[in-house]
Prior knowledge:
Strand content: 25-35%
Number of domains: 4
Radius of gyration: 32 Å
Strand order of the largest sheet: 7-6-8-9-10
Number of strands: 34
Largest sheet: 5 strands, parallel
Number of helices: 17
Shape: globular
CATH topology of the largest domain: Rossmann fold
Oligomer: single chain
Helix content: 25-40%
CATH superfamily of the largest domain: SGNH hydrolase
Distance between the termini: 101 Å
CATH architecture of the largest domain: 3-Layer(aba) Sandwich
Amino acid sequence: MAQNLTPTLSKRVILLLASLLVANPVVVFLLTNDLMWTLIVPVAAITAVQFFAPRRRVAVALFNLITICSIFAHAEVLLIHGFPERVIENLYVIKSGYYFNKPNLNQSFRSQEFSVNYRTNGQGFRIGVGQEPSTWIEKVDWLVLGDSFTQGAQVEFEDLFSTKLNVRFPDKIVVNAGISGMGIAHEYRYFVDEGQTLSPRLVILQVGSFNDFMNVEAGMSSFTDQLMEHSAFARLLLHDWRYGDPADLPLGRWTEPFYPDAQANRDYNIFFKDGSPRQARDLEVFRENLVALNDAVSKSGGTLLVALLPTREQVVTQSFNEVTSRFGIDHSLLDMRKPNTLLAKLAGEIHFDLIDLLPAFERATGDLFFNVDEHLTPLGHSVIATTIGDYIERQQGPSPAVLLSKTLSGDRYPSPSADGNLVAFQSVRGGTSELFLGSNDLSSAKQLTFDGVDEAHPMLSSDNSRILFTEGAAESHRTKVILMNVDGSRRINLTSKHDQFGAIATFSPSNLRVALAEWSIGSSGQSTNPQIVVVDLLIGNRQVISKPGRESWRPVFSADGKYMAYISKFEDQFDLVLYDVIGEKEKRLTSTPFDEWDPQFSPDGKRLIYAARKDGNWDLFLLDLATGHTERLTSTIGDEWDPVFSPNSGSLFYAGKFGFLEAIFRRRLSASLSRNVLPN
């Protein structure tokens, strides 16, 4: 029909209707969900065909092209909306010749060997369940690069070797940028394009003997790559052809770099003693890119640490015998330490740090690789984390921070009991902050609230029978202060008036008084500045402590009850204030161009520990009340806040946020400092 088109009026009408059919506005809207494109695409198609209608061959060609595109678009819509279970999710975006995770993924991967949640933040970095996709990483301590073995899509986020390293060194911001298919050329390109903007002090590069020494040159993305990125229908058609199925392979599993063909082994198998010009070229390009990456890391102020991951055939004798027997490979043709020797030589020449993981894998017992998938099991990741962690600890010493939280997000405001045996804290559950009471190492914890309302800033009474906390969403500015028995009974609102609100309350040493920040909101919705108020729990008397009109927060009593500390806003920032309870006088302790927050007295009452935002992030400081001398306790690129002394030991509890890791930590004080903060 298309070949008989003529520029007559009737045929122009036919062309118009046919163009409208193939450039279906409904289909365009379902694909784009955009009204503008829904109008533009059909109009453009109709206009083009009508314009070229007098030129028969051009019109026919254009009409046929639009028809093919329309068929493809209709198939796309039918697949997405009619058979969503058949849609293969696109997990990656194409960057400058390499793939990276799509932002804000929330997928589940399942196979006969694993079931995994796979989530990313807005930058495409992998995160765990409960961690915030909105968290944006601008600077890191350690950047981990690698291929699918680093990406670890077969294990949960908590089981990744990068996460386990972060748990061991929790005061570091660690980001996993491993992506399936990454090679040294891609990794170098990624670092130059994006990685170096994170200013990593350490770049950990995982190199695998599997395939990192073959096909090293990174080509630009093809038309097929682009098509599969943007079309679910194309992914359905091309996926099996592009990626294959391990069940169709000779051994029913991936066996790279071993091949049934002798020439393929000479070209691509790094273990072959007698390589080929192709393999020699790959090794030359590998060295060039490794030199370039090492130089780029050094110029950005970091250090490169390469971790060489062995193949399964290097570790499991049965797997080695299986593949060589099936492929007819003479053992005498192989040098199973060749990549290890090669990288050791390069480390000496190029001057980067190298960890050969083969000895640790040989010593380990258990399944380090999945049988069919061939990637690392949680045990394999654990061995890598331990080996790299031991190496870093030998170089830098152990981390001064100990991670106490059992979840990796949402724990804050640790509040130890008077005897130091228990710790109250808040943690996110089901999208809201709830209260918990745990052992002093948080190895066990009991949830105290379950009502789906934000509850925060807990403090225990000295006999551990009652708990103070803030109820309500902080952003609403309409929070209440609640006093409750630890068993959940006798819940009392200490800010009970309809226009009265408060937050972050603390007990006096006698438990007979409570200090809190309190404010009111009038009928116009205007809020007064929070002031420090002390409530007598016996008679209900309320005494305003802080200066009228000045915004004040975070009151806390000294152990003897003679003093209070809080923060007040002077001009544009918060400073520390000391209040003499008996003399009813306040004294400004700090006057800095940055905020101080979260004051807490030392057990002997002679010092204040607090958080301050001196360098654009929150660190911990100690102030001697007699001399006014301050001592900085932390200097990380993350945030440390909510500090409190352990009542019976020379250590601190505090909360912190390091990239995606938001948790409660403990930090031991130096022996001299510990002696100076505990009561005599």
